[in-house]
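This is your field. Please look over both lines of this record.
***
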Amino acid sequence: MASFLSLNRFLYVFVFVVGTGTLGAEIAAARLLAPFFGASTIVWANTIGVVLIALSLGYWLGGRLADRYPHLRGMCLVVLVAATLLAIVPFLARPLFDLSVEALDQIEAGAFIGSLFGVLFLIALPVLLLGAVAPYAIRLAVPDVQHSGRVAGRLYAISTAGSLLGNWVSALVLIPLIGTQRTFVTFAAVIALVAAAGLGWRYLAVPVALAGVLAIPVGTVKATENGRVIFETETEHQYVRVVEREGGERLLELNEGQAVHSLYRPHSVLTDNVWDGYLVLPFAALERPPARIAILGNAAGTTARAYGEFFPETRVDGVEIDAELSEVGRRYFDMDNPKLTVHHDDARPWLRRTDGRYDVIMVDAYRQPYIPFYLTTREFFELARQRLAPGGAVIVNAGHPEGNYDLERVLGATMAAVFGTVLRDPI
C-alpha cells in the first residue's frame, strides 16, 4: 500500500509537469510562427486546433498503450521521446518556415496554410505523445473501480493546473526573458527530468543533454533583405526587430514584418511616408499648431520625434501597449521629444480614463490583419470626440491592400455617424 501511495504521489508530480510543458509548448509555438506568419486570430486558431487534435489522438493512444504496457517505465519512455522531439522544434522551424514563406507569399491564404502545416509538422507529434500521459497515469493510479472517478478527477485537475502554470510561465516569464528557442528547450529538459526520475539514474543523461542545448546561441530569428538586423527581442506582446539600411535609416518591424511601424532617418525627421501626414493634416481643421495631441499607437516615436522638431511647444501623449517598444524608440529611433509623455496602456481604456482635451487625436494602431475592432466602432469615435478640444480633429491611418478601398469607405461611414466632416487623403 505504501509503494502504491508513493507511485501516486509521483504520478501527480508527473502529470503536473507534463501539463506545464503541453500548454507552454502551445504558447511558444504561436510565438515561433509570429515572425513568419504573424500572430493573427487565424494563426492562433491553427495552433489551438492542431494542439487539440494532437491531444485527442494522444488520449486515444495513451489508453491503448496503458492497457498493453501497464507499467511506469512505458509511460516514462513515451514522455522522454516527446521531450526530445520538443527540444528540436525551434531548430527545425527556421529552415522550414523560410521555405514555407517563400512558397506561400503569393497565395492569399498563405498565412493560414503555412501556419497550419508548420504547427502540424513541428509540434503535433510531441504534443500527441504528451497527451498520452493522462490516460496512462489514470491506468497506473487507479487501485480499483470504486476509486476510479476520484483518482481520474484528481489527476486531470492537477494536469490542468500544470497547464495553467505553463501558460503563464511561458508567456510572461520565459519567452520575454530567454526567447522562444530556449523556452522550448527548457520545457523539454524539465519534462525529460521527471521522465528520467521514473526510469532510473541512467536516463538522467537525456535531461542533462537537453539542458546543455540551452547554451547554443540563438542567432537572428530570420534573415532580411531590407538591411541588417541590429536588434531583436520577444516581448510579452510580439516579436520585435530593428533593421538598419545603408546610410543609417532604421525600420521597426513587428511579427512577420509586413508593415514598418516606425522609421528613423539620421539627418531628418521627415520620412517621405505616412508619418509626414500627421504633421500636415491637423491644419485641415486648425489654424495654428496643435497645443496638445494624443498618439494612439506610438510605437518607437516617429511622429512624436517630428513634432519635437517642427512644433516644439506641442504637448504629446504617446500611448503604446508594448512598453519595450518605447525602450527601442529611445535607443534606436531618437525618441527624445521633451514634450512627450509615454503611457503604456491599451488605447481605448486609456482614452476612456484620461481627462485631457486634445486638439488632435491620432490613431496609428491599424495594421492589417491586426486592426483592433474596438478601435473602429461608433462608440470608440464618440469617445474620441468627447476627448477633443473645440475644433479638434481625429486622424486615422488605415492601411489597406493595394487597390482595395473597402476598409476606408466603411471606416469613413462609421466616423461620419459621429463627426460632421470626414475627409479621406490617400497618402
